[in-house]
Amino acid sequence: MRALVLEAQDQPLVVREVPTPEPGPGQARVRLKAAALNHRDVFILRGQYAAIRHPAILGSDGVGVVESTGPGTVVPVGLRVVVQPSLDWGDDLRFQGSRYRILGMPDDGTFAEAIVLPEGNLVAAPAHLDDASAGALPLAWLTAWRALVTRATLRPGERVLVTGIGGGVAQAALLLATAYGARVWVTSGDDAKIARAVELGACGGARYDQPDWGGRLVREAGGPFDVIVDGAGGEGFGQLVRALGMGGRLAFYGGTDGRWPALLPQFLFFKQVSLLATTMGSPVEFAHMVAFVAEHQLRPVVDRVFPLAEGAAAFARLESGAQFGKVVLDLT
Ligand SMILES: NC(=O)c1ccc[n+]([C@@H]2O[C@H](COP(=O)([O-])OP(=O)(O)OC[C@H]3O[C@@H](n4cnc5c(N)ncnc54)[C@H](OP(=O)(O)O)[C@@H]3O)[C@@H](O)[C@H]2O)c1
User: Fold this and answer.
1) 18 and 314 in contact (C-beta within 8 Å)?
2) pTM here?
3) Which domains occur in the chain, in start order?
4) What is the pLDDT of residues 156-191, one digit of tens each?
5) Residue 153 contacts by C-beta under 8 Å, 6 or more apart in sequence?
6) For a tag on the chain, would you pick the N or C end, based on fewer CB atoms within 10 A?
7) Could you tell me if the CB of 83 is within 6 A of ligand 1?
8) Other CB atoms closer than 10 Å to residue 65's CB: what's the count?
9) Which of 101, 102, 169, 194 gets mutated to test ligand 1 (max ligand atoms within 8 A of its CB)?
């Protein structure tokens, strides 16, 4: 089979022939159709990730069709599935166990024509999604689901703020929260992305690179936020804490903008707020997320689809930050 291979640090990704993996007991081989990139793939490519091994096939997302199964596997051949990217989550739904890995490093990932996975990592793909949007669903939507639903216990009618709406997780959070019946505001470094978010259901937004954006959003929203979902961190985190209302919940999953500023405890304890660290999600959460997406006919935003042979260009698109929506590889 062909795969997009990272042969060494900071080397261009190359498409080459690699052995097609065979499924063992309880496993299935999926003929992949599409797989989206995540920022994690860029971090690995740039060496900003612990324990990188080479050569490697990256990729945590994917959709495809089961083409063969190992002994004792019950998932039917021919089923169209999305890939659940949390490997060996463990028995405790509150957090992952010591054997936990995210698909796509150190285990080979989905930027290939086929992959072998435990059948527990395969979930029937929502029928309303085409390959590009189904292949964009797994990692970003799982992360957004756990942040909003499990950690922040979102309720209909609440005021929600999602930061950096150009991001894949952020867009999933916007669409999930809107479908939940919440009212959502966003931040971005780009007015055009705020306008696109409003088309997707956001009530409004503000530029995070302009002064007092947190205060302006609170005034625009008619009050402070019940739930904030943040992947950026950085200096702006101080504004987020101040924009939380009484009993507010701030779920954070990323640190794109780096270190938090010093925070005054008084801004937190008087309002009885919760700062909630969150990462990926369990297989149970993935199943619930996919069912919710199917029930509400939600659709990940796809920025652009690149053929596997143009994988390096797909990475450059994500690194540029110009994308709105997921950057997807066509693996057919
Ligand atoms: N913990 C987890 O399980 C988990 C899962 C997925 C991702 N992550 C992490 O979360 C982050 C985002 O991941 P992703 O895949 O969604 O990335 P992505 O699709 O590449 O999006 C990154 C977005 O960050 C936004 N951004 C940049 N600087 C910002 C700032 N100062 N304030 C607010 N937003 C800012 C930009 O939004 P605009 O374009 O709108 O300006 C950009 O589009 C990464 O650090 C990633 O490693 C963690």
Assistant:
1) no
2) 0.98
3) 2-137+300-330 (3.90.180.10), 141-277 (3.40.50.720)
4) 999 999 999 999 999 999 999 999 999 999 999 999
5) 249
6) C
7) no
8) 16
9) 169
